[in-house]
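pasting for the record
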Amino acid sequence: MLEGYLDITNRIQKDPSKKFSFTIAYFGRKSLFAFKNRLQDLISFFGNLSGIEVIYVDADKMELLDVAELADYSRIIIPNESISIPKAVNTAVEVSSSNFVFVLPVNYRLVALNLNETKEFFLREPSLVCMTPYIINRGKKYANLVKFGVTKDKIEWMVVENSKNPATLTPNEFLGVYNRNLFLSLGGYNTELPSVLSEIEFGIRAWSSGCMIVSNNQILVDKIADIEEVIDVSLFDQSKPIFKYLLAKRPILEILKDLGKVPFYLITFRFKEILYIFSEIKNFVRNRKKVSFYPPDLEKISSVISYLP
């Protein structure tokens, strides 16, 4: 998934037989300072890192001098060039040594995680590709979840936060514990798409293949502000037309329906709606050939949803 990169660590060289049962992988360009803090956070949280692999993806070559002191405790991945969030996540999962990989931005601190319970959940449900955490930001706990159900030949979406392990279309801003083998078998995230669309496309492809993505409010991360360079994760509004256009069996028909609203918007001076429709049509035309998923199997998705608690 990622060609041409440095992989620096001393952990395996010191003990070639070392086995890891769980991986925690951080990503974030030019953020080695924040990663040092996260490494200390993990040592404080777990007591020691025996059996836990720690990876930092997307370090900058300019930070090479600072890597040596971290190599005894972690792996540092330094790509030849800046990479996108989807590519960073793909790389983190691909290079990991265990089958359970917790991927998160480097400005998120682990607050709550029971390793045994998490691994047992994955072992009980082999179709689970990702378990996404809840986020604490400025003292408030939240999750950007997309709950969905099937009505007739359409998928209906709604945001929920109530159930313990609700089904969600996508991970919470790419954060989550991934089943490495299952994630790689699906092809990971589509790196040809913009980040927000790549996350949506992956969710549809995963559910259409019979896999599950769920949230667990017992896994918590805290968003903090010690990162040197802000990681730009744009949130996607699942109610917007581009989602409908890409999923539709007859996208042109859906576009024509929205264009039919333009005269009404004109006479009611709703110019923002008109601009939005044309903007999303442009996005659809630009991205449709990059999208690799097919219209989802509604019966399969419905059966998987009914299985969830």
